[in-house]
């Protein structure tokens, strides 16, 4: 077998965003596109010679072909070994676990997360570092720099092995180990949680619906929930991964997980409902007749985490992304632990977790996780909820009501405006940014502006600074809105408007969310000049 050194040229736009490089699938399928980016990953991390990597993806269209290319390129770049999930499948948290457990030099994960999959949908590649977490900005910048100066890539002409068969093979002197995609992850979950208590819960007639959304979590959820914990067969729905996710968006929110929402809102709803996304790192939590917002879920998990064996000794701290509601801040203050506010992107939690400054982390975008891996973890969040429900013997509704009665309620929603012309979206954000300093003290409807911030973050561990991470307009009394442009969209710009209205423990804690937010929505739309600047008056998606 020989290594072929292929001359190439830089391809525009191979700049990793919030979570790796995400583009339309046909872009990734252009000749040399994957090859250039993978070579840039290897070059950006100082070469692959003698290194070991984990490789896997969420099974979306083109996953198999891209993995074949990565295997042949890793061999040609002198890698010692690849650990690959069977069939090329690994959930993002499972990949993070394997990187850590095997002390590898990192991993390459193929996913566009919650974005749809298929020949005309979305694809993505990201690199995770040896701690198991997404590459921080200094690494993604080095990878991007390599994409702009690349002149050749290296690929073996050996055939990639059959990934459906477990075992070890040799590709041009490199070991490829195909492993069970689920086993190591399932073992880790068994170490973190009180599986006996959850088993007893199910044995006592507790019912649940888990929507895997035709994505990668299906095999994990079936093995753990139905196989190990004894949930009734059929608890996991849409449990077979498909390359186009059954034609849907594998995005666990009330819009895209409608089948689950309908089930949980029905008169005969199960006790508990949950969904996970394309690559298994996001989660949605529901009780009977009730959606738990991701921000509330983080706050409630933080308040109750000590019921799970892994967190029984307490939490060192907690972290949330800036647009996530401030509900968890109140819990952290009550527990007397640190609470960090980071930019959007799981990569910003890595240093806090490594330094044991934070034990739990979470985001409004349906991501929650802990120090067990360095990615957010959908099934982990579901299992922590189950552990808490089992330990407390309460329903989701009872836990929520008690939580709000103690801490008050941060009513919360995110409005997304998709495929907005980039120039218009930038103009909207630029105009508000310039207006921020003059807003303080002004009144809009019932709200008086307490502060306007162009959010910047200084990492408390390594001192690195990330600027321009979103605009915050804070009102007196704890309500606020945040605006930023998505870093994961693949078409035009996606404007994300995050709306939060705080009601204290003595206020009305059981309002419909849209009613509780109606005034702040009207004020925010007006203040950002939404319709004047974009022509839009309704969000495309509300989560
Ligand atoms: C990624 C990041 C998250 C982020 C989300 C949305 O998640 O890991 O930290 O909150 O994107 O980002 P944006 O608002 O920039 O679109 P995932 O699940 O897509 O990998």
Explained architecture:
The chain is α/β, with parallel strands linked by helices. It has three domains: 3-181, Alpha-D-Glucose-1,6-Bisphosphate, subunit A, domain 3 (Alpha-D-Glucose-1,6-Bisphosphate, Chain A, domain 3, 3-Layer(aba) Sandwich); 185-407, Alpha-D-Glucose-1,6-Bisphosphate, subunit A, domain 3 (Alpha-D-Glucose-1,6-Bisphosphate, Chain A, domain 3, 3-Layer(aba) Sandwich); 409-542, TATA-Binding Protein. The model has no long low-confidence stretch (mean pLDDT 96). A seven-stranded mixed beta sheet has the order 2-6-5-3-4-9-8, sandwiched between helices. It has 17 helices and 27 strands. The structure holds 1,6-di-O-phosphono-alpha-D-glucopyranose (G16). 1,6-di-O-phosphono-alpha-D-glucopyranose is lined by residues 18-19, 113-114, 281-282, 321, 344-346, 363, 365, 367, 486-488, 496.
Topology:
Blueprint: E1 3-7, E2 21-24, H1 25-28, H2 33-44, E3 52-57, H3 63-76, E4 81-89, H4 92-101, E5 107-110, E6 122-128, H5 137-149, E7 152-156, E8 167-171, E9 174-179, H6 183-192, H7 195-203, E10 208-211, H8 217-228, E11 236-237, H9 258-265, E12 272-276, E13 283-287, E14 290-292, H10 294-304, E15 317-321, H11 327-335, E16 338-342, H12 350-354, E17 360-363, E18 367-370, H13 378-392, H14 396-407, E19 409-420, H15 422-439, E20 443-444, E21 447-454, E22 457-458, E23 465-466, E24 471-475, E25 480-485, E26 493-503, H16 513-528, H17 530-534, E27 541-542
Parallel strand pairs: 3-4, 3-5, 4-9, 10-11, 10-12, 15-16, 15-17
Antiparallel strand pairs: 1-7, 2-6, 5-6, 8-9, 12-13, 13-14, 17-18, 19-26, 19-27, 20-21, 21-24, 22-23, 24-25, 25-26
């Amino acid at each position: 077998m020989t290594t072929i050194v292929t001359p190439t040229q830089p391809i525009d736009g191979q700049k990793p965003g919030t979570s790796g490089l995400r583009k339309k699938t046909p872009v990734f399928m252009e000749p040399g596109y994957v090859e250039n980016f993978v070579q840039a990953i290897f070059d950006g991390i100082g070469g692959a010679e003698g290194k070991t990597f984990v490789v896997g993806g969420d099974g979306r269209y083109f996953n198999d072909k891209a993995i074949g290319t990565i295997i042949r390129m890793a061999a040609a770049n002198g890698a010692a070994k690849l650990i690959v999930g069977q069939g090329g499948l690994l959930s993002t948290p499972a990949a993070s676990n394997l990187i850590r457990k095997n002390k590898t030099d990192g991993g390459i994960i193929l996913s566009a997360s919650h974005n749809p999959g298929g020949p005309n949908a979305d694809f993505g590649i990201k690199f995770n570092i040896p701690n198991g977490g997404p590459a921080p900005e200094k690494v993604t910048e080095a990878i991007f720099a390599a994409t702009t100066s690349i002149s050749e890539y290296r690929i073996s002409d050996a055939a990639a092995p059959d990934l459906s068969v477990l075992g070890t093979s040799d590709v041009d002197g490199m070991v490829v180990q195909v492993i069970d995609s689920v086993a190591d992850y399932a073992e880790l979950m068994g170490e973190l949680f009180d599986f006996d208590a959850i088993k007893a819960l199910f044995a006592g007639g507790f019912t649940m619906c888990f929507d895997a959304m035709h994505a990668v979590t299906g095999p994990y959820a079936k093995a753990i929930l139905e196989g190990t914990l004894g949930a009734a067969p059929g608890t996991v729905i849409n449990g077979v991964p498909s390359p186009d996710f059954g034609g849907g968006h594998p995005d666990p929110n009330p819009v895209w997980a409608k089948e689950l929402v309908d089930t949980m809102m029905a008169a005969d709803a199960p006790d508990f409902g949950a969904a996970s996304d394309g690559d298994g790192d996001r989660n949605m939590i529901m009780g009977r007749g009730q959606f738990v917002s991701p921000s509330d879920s983080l706050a409630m998990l933080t308040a109750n985490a000590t019921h799970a064996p892994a967190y029984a000794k307490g939490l060192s701290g907690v972290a949330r992304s800036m647009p996530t509601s401030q509900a968890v801040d109140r819990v952290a203050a009550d527990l007397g632990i640190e609470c960090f506010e980071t930019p959007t992107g799981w990569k910003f939690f890595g240093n806090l977790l490594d330094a044991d400054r934070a034990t739990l982390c979470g985001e409004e975008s349906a991501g929650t996780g802990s120090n067990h891996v360095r990615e957010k973890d959908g099934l982990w969040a579901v299992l922590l909820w189950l552990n808490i429900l089992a330990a407390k013997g309460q329903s989701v509704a009872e836990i929520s009501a008690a939580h709000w009665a103690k801490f008050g309620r941060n009513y919360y929603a995110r409005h997304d405006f998709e495929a907005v012309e980039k120039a218009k979206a930038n103009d909207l954000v630029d105009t508000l940014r310039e207006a921020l300093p003059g807003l303080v003290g002004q009144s809009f409807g019932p709200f008086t502006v307490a502060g306007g911030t162009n959010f910047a973050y200084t990492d408390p561990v390594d001192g690195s600074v990330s600027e321009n991470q979103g605009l915050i307009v804070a009102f007196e009394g704890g309500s606020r809105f945040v605006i930023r442009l998505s870093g994961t969209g693949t078409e035009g710009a996606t404007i994300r408007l995050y709306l939060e209205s705080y009601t204290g423990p003595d206020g009305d804690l059981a309002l419909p969310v849209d009613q509780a937010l109606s005034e702040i929505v009207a004020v925010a739309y007006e203040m950002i000049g939404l319709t004047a600047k974009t022509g839009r008056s309704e969000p495309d998606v509300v989560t």
